[in-house]
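ok so dumb question maybe but i'm new to this and my supervisor (M.) told me to 'just get the structure for ATP-binding cassette domain-containing protein' and walked off. so i did the thing. is this what she meant?? sequence i used:
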Amino acid sequence: MIEATDLRKLYRIADREVLALDGVDLRVAPGEVYGVVGQSGAGKSTLLRCVNLLERPTSGSVRVHGRELTAMSESELRGARRDIGMVHQHFALLSSRTVAGNVAFPLEIMGVRGAQRRRRVGELLELVGLQDKARAYPAQLSGGQKQRVGIARALAARPAVLLSDEATSALDPETTGSILELLRDLNRELGLTILLITHEMDVIKQICDSAAIMEDGRFLEQGPILDLLARPGSLLARSLFPLPALEDPDTVVLTHTRQPETAVLSELTRHFDVDVHMYGGAVDTIAGSTVGRLQLRITGAARAAALDHLREQGMGVEVGA
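this is what came out, is it supposed to look like this??
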């Protein structure tokens, strides 16, 4: 659905050059919720703006819904962008228009008239739970309601792809949860492909199927979230499940991304000549699955065989240095 290949974006500011994107490759599958997480200045917003060609990359290509946007003229892009909705961090609503008027605005630009436009606005407001706010103005809305209006407006043209630019960063935690739940519901009900950027790991944890960690214009790691969590040395796993550093060579961190069928640790001590000491751990629901991380100290003559057994059971195994 979204394919970006070797994207580079170079800005020239006064007498210096700033490389905002440095060879980024991105693949977002149809119907997927994909999150890009990183701190300010990592290049996230530049990446998002290059995906819909609001910024032209210095080099590289972008394909969305089978069409190569980087090969299009500006007039061709205007039509192609109807397939790409955009939700903004600070809502970007027109203060002089009602809720219904804001949602109707892109339909007006498209030339949708009269009853058809009103019917579509009603459908969208029902979709985001704001049927009773049609005549309200943005100043009369809460932050979460404003973002719901922004989402409805972004869906007006029935896009296949929705881009979210820090859509929850201006909201309180409870409202953030409701907006993320709405985005996930839209993803499932409409088959909507969503690419979002955020600096919050909780956003990645709550709704994303795949993710990338970005720093200095590059992806440090990327892929399906459950695969990343099971990967030894995963930055995502360490961010979501912070544990002390593995300084003791006998220390092991186990990650399971599905519920084990057996009592793994009891089985380990019964069948192998090892001692197991537990230091700590946590269990959470991520990408719709129960994920656990345990930090252990495993010693004994059969330690290597025990670790191999854990890997065979589908556990991610990370050993101390």
